[in-house]
Design goal:
Distance between the termini: 30 Å
Structural class: alpha+beta
Number of helices: 13
Strand order of the largest sheet: 1-2-3-4
């Protein structure tokens, strides 16, 4: 049964929108600025950029403020804005070996070329409430920044580039090689996703998927409802150069760089018992979001599994359910009027009970 348009209620809707704005404005605290959100809530901004499929920290921070911190709504706003902008062209394929690394670790190798670079992380700290943040001392903050920058100036600078660790496995013939080349790279923002999906379409869908949804499916696979037992070959956080073709010469031309997180997940292969190899899952997303990149890498590997398996290894199931904006929209549409369909259900139920009583 088709949905029936609802008429009327315009004044009530307008007042509801005004009430929502009141909820944002009420209270005695100072208004939080877009710059504060961008600078101090970086993980939140990065998550919204990834799920909104637009690298624009300032706009993502604005969307967070408008949505009052609702990541689903903020990503929805950002992606909707994205659709209004003209498409000027496509960037060239990025080479992550050129990444300006700020964090680089491996759980597969202890000693690796270039060394482990812990970078900015809370992984090794206790999750204790820091009550000093209630009333921060700006002078103390400036002093801490000055000391950090002074110490950084006397340390050995990081190399411009780091070797890719999976290349070590490739050289030994330990990594399963598959032909992943595509004559034409898919663009899921212009063509709807088709199943079976090409690898480029699958990675794009995972890359802008909702972090919690990706984690849920990847976690189910890692716990045993799947065949992937992941080891992080390499996890990188850094600034990736963005290159386009020069309009006059056609040569690659760098127009800037973006912060990304990359994860290469290694797992044993069960596809060929006579020729055992390690397999690779890949994840890359906007900003600093390690949980998402790792989950993406696990699911990328999982949906390449052969034969029937768990839901997390079914390509159609995974790719159809990880988009947070689509799933949020479907969930929330049930708040809209369903009077006709529900009354139809009630009529059928009443008729069935009446026939039973008369039977």
């Amino acid at each position: 049964m088709a949905y029936v348009a609802v008429k009327g209620g315009r004044e009530a809707i307008e007042q509801a929108c005004r009430l929502t704005e009141y909820q944002r404005l009420k209270g005695e605290s100072e208004r939080i600025s877009v710059a504060q959100i961008r600078d101090q809530l970086g993980f939140l901004v990065d998550r919204v950029m990834g799920e909104g499929s637009l690298y624009a920290p300032e706009l993502a921070a604005l969307a967070v403020k408008q949505a009052r911190g609702d990541t689903f709504e903020a990503a929805f706003i950002l992606r909707a804005y994205r659709t209004t902008q003209p498409r000027l062209g496509y960037s060239l394929s990025g080479d992550t070996s050129k990444m300006r690394v700020i964090r680089r670790i491996s759980s597969a190798f202890k000693d690796l070329p270039g060394g482990q670079v812990l970078g900015p992380t809370d992984d090794y700290s206790l999750r204790l409430m820091n009550f000093d943040l209630v009333n921060e001392d700006e002078q103390a903050n400036r002093l801490a920044i000055k000391e950090l920058l002074t110490e950084a100036g006397i340390t050995t600078p990081l190399p411009d580039t780091f070797p890719k660790l999976v290349d070590l496995l490739r050289r030994e013939g330990l990594l399963e090689e598959t032909d992943r080349s595509e004559a034409l790279i898919s663009d899921i923002t212009r063509q709807s996703l088709k199943i079976p999906a090409s690898r480029s379409a699958a990675l794009q869908t995972l890359s802008r998927g909702e972090t919690g949804g990706l984690l849920c499916l990847a976690y189910s696979n890692m716990r045993g409802y799947g065949s992937v037992h992941p080891t992080i070959g390499e996890l990188r956080v850094g600034y990736l150069p963005v290159e386009v073709s020069h309009p006059h010469t056609g040569a690659p031309y760098c127009i800037g760089e973006i912060l990304v997180t990359e994860a290469e997940i290694i797992s044993k292969s069960y596809n060929d018992a006579e020729n055992p190899k390690m397999t690779l899952g890949y994840g890359l997303c906007y900003g600093h979001n390690e949980t998402k990149a790792i989950s993406m890498g696990v699911l990328d590997r999982a949906i390449q599994s052969s034969g029937p398996g768990s839901p997390s290894e079914d390509q159609e199931f995974v790719l159809s359910h990880v988009d947070g904006i689509e799933s949020m929209g479907f969930c929330n549409h049930f708040k809209l009027p369903h009077y006709v369909t529900f009354q139809s259900d009630l009529d059928r139920l009443r008729k069935t009970l009446e026939e039973q009583d008369n039977g």
